[in-house]
Design a protein that fits this description.
This protein has a single domain, classed as 2-Layer Sandwich (Cytochrome Bc1 Complex, Chain A, domain 1). The chain has a six-stranded mixed β-sheet, sandwiched between helices. The protein starts with a helix and ends with a helix. The longest helix is centred in the middle third of the chain and has 18 residues. By secondary structure, the chain is of the alpha+beta class. It contains nine helices and six strands.
Length: 230
């Protein structure tokens, strides 16, 4: 129920951002695909664009004990190679059709965003499906993204605001996942393995754990079909 409410809220936020002229006349439609996937749709044909936001319940609170940072690391890797496409090929496929795909790990949700021109919706759905079903977690992108995160964590060690925030959360939530740094620490991020990533992925990424919001030039029937292709 919380995810469904969040999906409706996302629809209300996406409409004024993408289609300001339609912001005062929003109709939100519940769409159920033939395979039972539920999405919330605001149909708007003013621009040939489709924006999808989706979230899985989980986030950094589901990181394995002793290894905070797994969700954050994985959020940087799902668009870095999937299925038969390595990192370079996957990024090229996105760029060739001007598809924007990104992921983010919050404390309670693991979310993603997809934007595509309507004419490229089938390719966008295909690439999203690969990312959500066959991530590669190849060594090169894993180490590259890990290095980026570690650089940020080292910078955080000298940032008073970050240190104060971490101390506050640890004191407010002792022994709870909220009390640990969601991005991990230098020690924990350095120790994350490919198996850790795969285990987290298999635990969190599931269709019965998913909320979807869609805004743009797509009708309910077409969206229902598209959902089952992901």
């Amino acid at each position: 129920m919380k995810l469904a409410k969040a999906a409706v809220a996302v629809c209300l936020l996406l409409v004024p951002a993408l289609f300001p002229a339609a912001a005062n006349a929003v109709t939100i439609e519940r769409v159920v695909s033939p395979k039972g996937i539920v999405a919330w749709l605001v149909e708007e044909d003013a621009i040939p664009l489709i924006a999808m936001s989706f979230a899985f319940q989980g986030g950094s609170t589901q990181d394995p004990d002793g290894k905070p940072g797994v969700a954050n690391l994985m959020s940087g890797l799902l668009d870095e190679g999937a299925g038969p496409l390595d990192s370079e090929a996957f990024q090229k496929a996105l760029d060739d059709d001007s598809i924007d795909l990104s992921f983010d790990a919050g404390r309670d949700t693991f979310s993603g965003s997809l934007r595509t021109l309507t004419e490229n919706q089938d390719q966008a759905a295909h690439l999203l499906k690969l990312a959500l079903t066959e991530p590669r977690f190849d060594e090169e992108p894993v180490e590259r993204i890990r290095a980026q995160i570690l650089a940020g964590l080292r910078a955080d060690e000298t940032d008073p605001g970050t240190l104060a925030s971490r101390s506050l959360m640890a004191s407010l939530f002792p022994g709870h996942p909220y009390g640990r740094p969601s991005d991990g620490t230098i020690e924990t991020v350095s120790s994350i393995t490919r198996d850790d990533l795969k285990d987290y992925f298999n635990k969190i990424i599931a269709k019965d754990n998913l909320a979807i919001a869609v805004v743009g030039a797509i009708d309910a029937e077409s969206l229902a079909t598209l959902l089952d292709e992901i």
